[in-house]
Amino acid sequence: MSHLAAWAAQPDASARTEIAYLLTFVKTSACQFNRNGSWHPSTEAAAHIERKYEYVLGKGMVATAEDFIRLAATQSSYSGTAYTVKCDGNVLKSADWLTQALHLFRKQH
């Protein structure tokens, strides 16, 4: 893939549906999200991830739900520190948590 083609990436309808599902999944979860050492409720995390998504989408860098997870929901752009999610006392990397949710969504649809 050429450098210019990477900048032209846009999610198709299926990817947009998956990304919308993941954003809703984050927002409606009862989980807490750790970003740069601070815990945030799911609604704040979803808003932050959505802002990052809009930014990378505008750069033409998102073609798939996996791109969304990797570029908007995995780690801090500022510090490079991985985001973590605490659900029912279990702490997971957000990338793993969202990838699992995506796989379940695909199985069901």
Task: Tell me what the structure shows.
A four-stranded antiparallel beta sheet has the order 2-1-3-4. The protein is built from five helices and four strands, in the order ααββααββα. The longest helix has 17 residues, at 42-58. The termini are far apart. Helix content is 56%, strand content 15%. It has 109 residues and is α+β, with helices and mostly antiparallel strands. It has helices at 3-7, 13-28, 42-58, 65-72, 94-108, and strands at 32-35, 38-41, 84-87, 90-93. The radius of gyration is 14 Å and the shape is globular.
Index terms:
alpha+beta, disordered N terminus, 4-stranded antiparallel sheet, 109 residues
Mean pLDDT score: 93
Task: Let me know the largest β-sheet.
Answer: 4 strands, antiparallel
Query: Which strand order spans the largest sheet, edge to edge or round the barrel?
Result: 2-1-3-4
Uncertain regions spanning at least 5 consecutive residues: 1-6
Gyration radius, to the nearest Å? Answer: 14 Å
Category by helix and strand content? alpha+beta
Instruction: Tally the helices.
Output: 5
Into which percentage range does the β-strand content fall?
Answer: 5-15%
User: Cα distance, first to last residue?
Assistant: 29 Å
Helix/strand order, N-terminal first: HHEEHHEEH
Q: How helix-rich are the residues, as a percent range?
A: 55-70%
What's the total count of β strands? 4
Outline, from the CA principal axes? globular
